[in-house]
């Protein structure tokens, strides 16, 4: 498999094409849905295609619209999934050519592509200081176009309130399924814990993907710097040695708490650096999911 680094793919402005290139480099058959249909409740219509059983055609719909469609029921989709992506200001950070946000939305697009290719129902939620956008899960190609269209237009801004967004999303979930959360999770970990508990209460299998820049994983700088908070705009001056010691200690503690709460709540956690090839990160995620199923 040819491995393309993020800086080679991000210049491709068409997000749909970018996601397709990544997915084509990954064996989609690695993924197995952890849940199958729970009822025969009607979900939506889709166009009749060669190979479909003619008995499934909705003739009333055909008589009214002259369109040949079949009914799709919940038990014909493997999984109901929601992808929750962070577009707060901190996600705009980059020390190289690829920001955390660009990496996150590309990964979200690839995950949505794989799930919908399998006829899994996928929804999308976008947040910063609150839940900004939400698409209910659907399993059609039109849904994939809607998801890619939203991901293509959004830009990072404002403050992070990851925990509040998780709680709002959880409040609206009524079906058992999976929630994929993509963020740097630079928010109060105890508040995040409450949101994750809410999702678990709603019978969600949670996949938490923490996207970090390489300098956030290990900060090593010399000299004097001016640091500016991308969300509040507050700036401070500090020498590199003091900044490195202070920052690395804080990030280690924060990420340790995050990992601990994921173990406690039985949540699948992956930390991904923005210099890791998309296909490698995706295969690692899917391979781990396979072992958990």
Estimated radius of gyration: 21 Å
Q: Treating each run of at least 4 consecutive H or I residues as one helix, how many helices?
A: 10
Summarize the helix and strand pattern as letters: HHEHEEHEEHHEHEHEEHEH
> What is the class of the largest domain in the CATH system?
Alpha Beta
Helical percentage: 40-55%
Widest β-sheet, arrangement of strands: 5-4-3-6-7-10
The CATH superfamily of the largest domain appears as: von Willebrand factor, type A domain
Distance between the termini: 25 Å
Average pLDDT taken over every residue: 79
Instruction: Report the CATH topology name of the largest domain.
Output: Rossmann fold
Number of strands: 10
% residues in beta strands: 15-25%
List the domain count as a whole number: 2
Shape: elongated
**Main sheet summary:** 6 strands, mixed
Helix and strand composition category: alpha/beta
- Can you name the CATH architecture of the largest domain? 3-Layer(aba) Sandwich
Q: Can you tell me about this structure?
A:
This protein is an alpha/beta fold and 293 residues long. It has ten helices and ten strands. The strands form three sheets. It has a six-stranded mixed β-sheet with strand order 5-4-3-6-7-10, sandwiched between helices. Strands 1-2 form a two-stranded antiparallel sheet. β6, α7 (189-201) and β7 form a beta-alpha-beta unit. α2 (15-24) packs across α4 (100-117). The longest helix is centred in the C-terminal third of the chain and has 25 residues, at 240-264. The two termini are 25 Å apart.
């Amino acid at each position: 498999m040819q491995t393309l680094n993020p800086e080679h793919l991000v210049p491709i402005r068409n997000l749909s094409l970018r996601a397709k290139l990544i997915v084509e480099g990954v064996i989609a058959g690695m993924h197995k849905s952890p849940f199958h249909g729970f009822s025969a409740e009607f979900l939506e219509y889709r166009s009749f295609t060669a190979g479909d059983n003619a008995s499934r055609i909705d003739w009333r719909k055909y008589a009214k619209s002259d369109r040949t469609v079949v009914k799709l029921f919940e038990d014909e989709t493997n999984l109901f999934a929601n992808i929750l992506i962070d577009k707060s200001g901190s996600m705009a950070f980059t020390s190289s050519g690829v920001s955390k946000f660009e990496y996150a939305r590309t990964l979200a697009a690839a995950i949505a592509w794989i799930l919908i290719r399998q006829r899994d129902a996928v929804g999308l939620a976008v947040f910063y200081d609150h839940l900004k956008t939400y698409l209910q899960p659907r399993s059609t190609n039109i849904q994939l176009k809607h998801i890619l269209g939203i991901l293509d237009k959004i830009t990072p801004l404002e403050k992070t309130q990851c925990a509040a967004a998780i709680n709002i999303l959880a409040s609206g979930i009524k079906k058992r399924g999976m929630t994929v959360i993509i963020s740097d999770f630079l928010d109060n970990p105890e508040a995040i814990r409450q949101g994750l508990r809410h999702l678990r209460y709603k019978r969600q299998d949670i996949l938490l993907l923490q996207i970090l820049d390489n300098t956030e994983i290990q900060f090593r700088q010399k000299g004097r710097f001016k640091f500016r908070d991308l969300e509040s705009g507050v700036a401070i001056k500090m020498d590199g040695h003091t900044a490195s010691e202070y920052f690395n200690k804080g990030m280690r503690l924060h990420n340790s708490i995050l990992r601990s709460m994921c173990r406690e709540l039985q949540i699948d956690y992956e930390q991904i650096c923005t210099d890791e090839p998309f296909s490698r990160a995706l295969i690692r995620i899917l391979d781990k999911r396979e072992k958990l199923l």
